[in-house]
TrEMBL record:
<feature type="active site" description="Proton donor">
    <location>
        <position position="37"/>
    </location>
</feature>
<keyword id="KW-0436">Ligase</keyword>
<comment type="function">
    <text>Hydrolyzes RNA 2',3'-cyclic phosphodiester to an RNA 2'-phosphomonoester.</text>
</comment>
<feature type="domain" description="Phosphoesterase HXTX">
    <location>
        <begin position="89"/>
        <end position="165"/>
    </location>
</feature>
<dbReference type="InterPro" id="IPR004175">
    <property type="entry name" value="RNA_CPDase"/>
</dbReference>
<dbReference type="Pfam" id="PF02834">
    <property type="entry name" value="LigT_PEase"/>
</dbReference>
<feature type="short sequence motif" description="HXTX 1">
    <location>
        <begin position="37"/>
        <end position="40"/>
    </location>
</feature>
<feature type="domain" description="Phosphoesterase HXTX">
    <location>
        <begin position="8"/>
        <end position="83"/>
    </location>
</feature>
<protein>
    <recommendedName>
        <fullName>RNA 2',3'-cyclic phosphodiesterase</fullName>
        <ecNumber>3.1.4.58</ecNumber>
    </recommendedName>
</protein>
<dbReference type="GO" id="GO:0016874">
    <property type="term" value="F:ligase activity"/>
</dbReference>
<keyword id="KW-0378">Hydrolase</keyword>
<dbReference type="GO" id="GO:0008664">
    <property type="term" value="F:RNA 2',3'-cyclic 3'-phosphodiesterase activity"/>
</dbReference>
<comment type="similarity">
    <text>Belongs to the 2H phosphoesterase superfamily. ThpR family.</text>
</comment>
<dbReference type="GO" id="GO:0004113">
    <property type="term" value="F:2',3'-cyclic-nucleotide 3'-phosphodiesterase activity"/>
</dbReference>
<dbReference type="InterPro" id="IPR009097">
    <property type="entry name" value="Cyclic_Pdiesterase"/>
</dbReference>
<feature type="active site" description="Proton acceptor">
    <location>
        <position position="120"/>
    </location>
</feature>
<feature type="short sequence motif" description="HXTX 2">
    <location>
        <begin position="120"/>
        <end position="123"/>
    </location>
</feature>
Length: 178
């Protein structure tokens, strides 16, 4: 059974900028830059028939390319931080694409996504990192000039069952060119 998710790839030059922010945070497991992405919809472990149905429905998405802005670092998890992320501006085209993918996946019988869509790029997963260490890290490295790229496609990624962080494989890609 493949474990699938739809997302946007991060261009190599922006990935390198983000990778330069790694280090100096106890308990962080840093994600390799080639695995940076913006998850649009986690699909999960599904059978081949469902995977093919989802891939077919995604091929029908007709949207224009749009700009994506990566702006600053933050963390998820509050008092018990679990990830360091680069924030992605929730632009209208990004939200609309994510919403359309959510509708398509639900049409295939999957449950609705339980969390509110908060676009981001995960840089590190945290284990036993205290909120003070994370706050100190963010105060030093949390700001960087906004990086903008044009999303000209979204992809269907697969991953092996793990605690996250890759490697991710592109199973299919869908041009944004309507």
């Amino acid at each position: 059974m493949p474990r699938l998710f739809a997302g946007l790839e991060i261009p190599a030059e922006i990935g390198q900028t983000l990778a330069n922010l790694r280090g100096g945070l106890p308990g962080a497991r840093w994600i390799d830059p080639e695995n940076y992405h913006v998850t649009l919809r986690f699909i999960g472990d599904i059978d081949g028939v469902s995977a093919n149905e989802i891939a077919d429905l995604m091929s029908r998405v007709e949207r224009r390319p749009f700009e994506v802005a990566v702006r600053g670092l933050s963390s998820f998890g509050g008092k018990k931080p679990r990830a360091v992320v680069a924030a992605v501006e929730p632009s209208r085209p990004l939200i609309e694409l994510q919403s359309e993918l959510e509708r398509l996946v639900r049409r295939c019988g999957l449950e609705p996504e339980g969390r509110k869509f908060t676009p981001h790029v995960t840089l590190a997963r945290l284990r036993d990192s205290c909120d003070r260490d994370v706050a100190d890290y963010l105060s030093v490295r949390g700001y960087f000039p906004t990086k903008i790229f044009t999303a000209s496609r979204f992809v269907l990624f697969s991953s092996r069952a793990s605690t996250g962080g890759g490697p991710y494989l592109v199973e299919d890609s869908y041009a944004l060119s309507a």
